[in-house]
Amino acid sequence: MATAMLKIKGLQVNYGGIQAVKGVDMEVAQGELVTLIGANGAGKTTTMRICLGILEADEGAVRWNGAPSTELSRNTWGYLPEERGLYPRLPVLDQLVYFAQLYGAPADRARSEAMRWLVRFRIPEYANRRAEELSKGNQQKVQFIAAILHEPDVLLMDEPFTGLDPVNLALLREAFLELRDQGRTVVFSTHQMELAEAMCESVAIVDRGRLVAGGPIRDLKRASGRRIVRIGLNGTAGTGWLDTLPGVIVRSSGVDRTELELTDGIEPAAVLAAAVANGSTVTHFELDEPSLETLFIDHVGRPADDGERTLAS
Predict the structure, then answer these.
(1) What is the pLDDT of residues 15-31, one digit of tens each?
(2) Residue 96: which CATH number?
(3) Domain span holding position 263
(4) Are residues 233 and 210 in the same domain?
(5) Tens digit of each residue's pLDDT (9 = 90 or more) over 23-60
(6) Would you give the DSSP letter of residue 291?
(7) Which 3 state secondary structure label does DSSP give 5?
């Protein structure tokens, strides 16, 4: 049997003469976890809302398992919006059950599953507390639970990791990977490149309403042809001398590591030899491919959180 597929084809949206989405095409297979990255105003949220039927495209179509999104049941989709969507004065467990029932889930099962997730996310004591009493991070976890309780086939998550501390980020990341392993199709947007790179095999880079690059992250890195050296140095010579090496571009400099890009004809061994010649002790040395953040800036020309927020965010 063929694998189910989310297919987005030729999406175009205009707002008052401004073309906010310009022919976005992408495919995401069942059980795939894909990150959608782009600067503010790139069209990520608009694309998600078209999939959900919240907005209507001027052109193009969205299909799941061959069926147009307009013909699909609402419980096909799970959605976590970037903005808070909880009732502030309603107890957490009550509204989780209410949201699940809107999608046809039985109340008893919704209540038991909601409590299981609250325990897993280490907030069972908030089950009968009003949502407004929770921190922003805990509200985000509650919204995540609300998006998945009805067991949707496709999950669309808009900046799901915003405002989470490292512990809660790890909890949510584990949940994402579990959903993927269960065969859910998950598309999420984020500005946290390292997180996206660690979680996803594939990425879609959107810029000013267009999909400018997409596919397996590994393939995009290899296609770039760029060579990166990360070096750690101890010694009185410091790291300033790296700027004087021919064919070497210093991409970033930190306390423990300096990231260099090698141009054609320069071998990593030459950098290592220069470090030794300058009296430095080399504590770390590795040859690597460019990071996802580097690839993003290559295609878009600015950091992911740059740019003004618009209707096409």
Answers:
(1) 887 888 999 999 999 99
(2) 3.40.50.300
(3) 227-288
(4) no
(5) 999 999 999 999 999 988 899 999 999 999 999 999 99
(6) P
(7) strand
